[in-house]
């Protein structure tokens, strides 16, 4: 939309104010500036507002708008007077405006920084959170235009509008005069306003997914007359899953009536030529028609009031530029009607809840009911995961195969699963992360309550799947993986590992530590399990060999004893086929029964089984049985109550009565013991559970971001502004050493002085200034920080040694003008480290740490954390690299001053967090001695801060 010519004298049309938003009930709306072209829309909108709402807006009866009113409310200068509208289907459902005022309440221009704000919401859309969403957006616009405070006058009876203002979380003042409530509030975001905004975001986005997964009625568009085809297959899957709502088949080729004048049907499902012909409300439409016919289907759905779409049709972003444009238009069209989309090129959705029983997907068999939520961006991977979970006896709560995920994404599913009582564990296969900042924020919050296991595809190719429109990240995959782990995400490399971990987390409690008991009837398998535990950082006990003559009862006794051992946090049971004394062969059912009985006696510790050539054991273990109708549920991954007190060995409980055992498809996941065909797989799953449990314990007591008294935040801000203004390059600048050192000094980071030495005489003079002993080193780019190449001479005790070293460097590497040598004072010996920070446009500010040197760079031994870094995270950062033992006294060396290193990391974190214009910092090397540390070189880069998509008002990703 373009601004009419008579409004262009003050400001160009601000297209960046346009936004799609999710409302409280899960529907969508579009927010945009009001222009002169909206006169008819405004009049039509006002006619649909009740007299009471008009009275609340104007404090008097106001049945209609005059021509002068319409002109005033549609003509804005977009600086001192701004109006925004929320639209659905192109029509207004709400408006908000502000007018800049002075201290007397009269119309004003800048530098006045206060404005009067007023809303009007159509009665049919009140209660949907429209006003609170508009308030977020008009406040962001006002801040951009230099307005710092809003004032609003509201009638006391207008309690809904008063609540909109008071619940927003801003600092405010309230007064009452002349029968009117006057509210004044600052627009600077506060911790409370941000918390309110994110809580509303979670409810709205979660509700938008819930509407897609719990429809009361489904229309499948594109159902053929003959069996086969995508549409007919989905309709059949919906029927076979026992969908509890109403079903409709739609195809423009259908006749509305059969030969006998009755309503037409397909396999007993009412058939219609279009969605518009369906008399009852339709909640969800599954579209399975060619791409060129999708726009018509979407328009019909929008006009009919359909609440959400699953678009199975292909031919979109995955097919090239034309398809990408078609995909953008699809999203724009659907959102204009308030609908959200799963797809296009989607695999479909599944909800196993008995209240819904929805299988609107291409999966021919609906999975069993369970506690696992599954999201995948790939149909092929979705098929593999559904099949793998089914074979292992695991059930699902919900499944979403998003395809190109043009609209509904993994972030939306995290919002939904966070409060979903039917989901305990979430599994996600991601090929791209559209909004990494938001994903890590949501993942951290979700992981504090429920395990989140993620596999990321296309992580090494650097190729974004053609159907996905995402912001590129410059961070390597290893860095992204580390940041996800920091957020509590269980990062695994394959879908097999994801299923393995998911089964353990869904069926067993979290371990309270890394100590693992091992028992079984194979000594060799026990040793393999022991080795795998050591390799994965667990602390295994000596394997207990029950011998090949062990009976199921022997397994039960041994497992009960191991679980009762206070020095054991988890148990892995190994089982191979055996032959009894009477010649009877292996009976997996009896072994499974005995193992479940033993595990039920100590439900606070996880148990996993490794089986070799024991067909049927995994299925038998997955057939969960409860310990009785009134037995308490064991602690699970969502309630990780550890069992740390020593126990006496209980009597092995008797096996549950099979006549009272619940149906395996409906029994709680917590009673299922996961089984694995290889020791390494069971150990890897347990190792991930141990690390996640440790993260949960640490997250329960988060660290704090230190406030240092010697930090000069305002002085640094002023200096940064000066430096950027002096340079003028929109791409930014790398600071000169003196400027970089000055800026770092304002945050308590002292860089050792290094004096240039363009010739031997100057080098000698510099050494006399600094004082011997000194170091002579080159700063040429190809030799910088490469002591292994010989570009550094240390411990030069006098001028003779200095001049000889100077000659050696120039003889070996070239002229001084090429080498750029410097002289620097010697510092106490220690461990050379590197500290860096960078702002990635997609992921945000990232702090990195590692040891200096080519070996660490070659091995990629660098750790990463998102900024701001707490004291706890700074400590874990330096301990998470593989070479960390060198800092703590490896092989008899003296430990170095890690507290000083942790403080340095926190100071760098504060710098880049306080000043987003600081887009890169590098401190190399940082020599950490037994007492204190020395920063020998530093570089800082400034640039206009990149736009952040995790701040400001709530919006959906733009297309």
Largest sheet: 8 strands, mixed
Can you give the helix content as a percent range? 25-40%
Which strand order does the major sheet show? 1-2-3-4-5-6-8-7
Mean pLDDT over the full residue set: 87
Q: Give unreliable regions as ranges.
A: 1-9, 625-636, 640-670
The backbone outline, from C-alpha atoms, is: flat
**Strand runs, count:** 39
Radius of gyration: 33 Å
What is the terminal-to-terminal distance? 15 Å
Our estimate of the beta-strand percent is: 15-25%
- Provide the structure class: alpha/beta
Which short descriptors sum up this protein?
disordered N terminus; alpha/beta; eight-stranded mixed β-sheet; 959 residues; seven-stranded mixed β-sheet; 27 helices
SSE topology sketch:
Elements: E1 19-22, E2 28-33, H1 39-47, H2 51-58, H3 67-74, E3 81-88, E4 91-101, E5 114-121, H4 130-144, E6 149-154, H5 159-166, E7 172-177, E8 180-186, H6 191-213, E9 217-221, H7 230-240, E10 246-250, E11 265-266, E12 269-272, E13 284-287, H8 294-304, E14 308-311, H9 321-336, E15 340-342, E16 348-351, E17 358-361, E18 369-376, H10 379-391, E19 396-401, H11 410-419, E20 425-430, H12 436-447, E21 452-456, H13 477-486, E22 490-492, H14 495-507, E23 515-520, H15 523-535, E24 539-540, E25 544-545, H16 552-564, E26 570-575, H17 588-600, E27 607-611, H18 617-622, E28 675-676, H19 679-699, H20 713-727, E29 733-734, H21 737-745, E30 754-756, H22 760-770, E31 774-778, E32 792-796, H23 799-813, H24 816-819, E33 821-825, E34 831-840, E35 844-851, H25 854-859, E36 862-866, H26 871-879, H27 898-914, E37 918-928, E38 933-935, E39 938-942
Parallel strand pairs: 5-6, 9-10, 9-13, 10-12, 13-14, 14-15, 18-19, 18-20, 20-21, 21-22, 23-24, 23-25, 23-26, 26-27, 27-28
Antiparallel strand pairs: 1-2, 2-3, 3-4, 4-5, 6-8, 7-8, 11-12, 16-17, 16-19, 29-39, 30-33, 31-32, 31-33, 34-35, 34-37, 35-36, 37-38, 37-39
Helix pairs in contact: 6-11, 8-9, 10-14, 11-12, 14-19, 15-19, 16-17, 22-23, 26-27
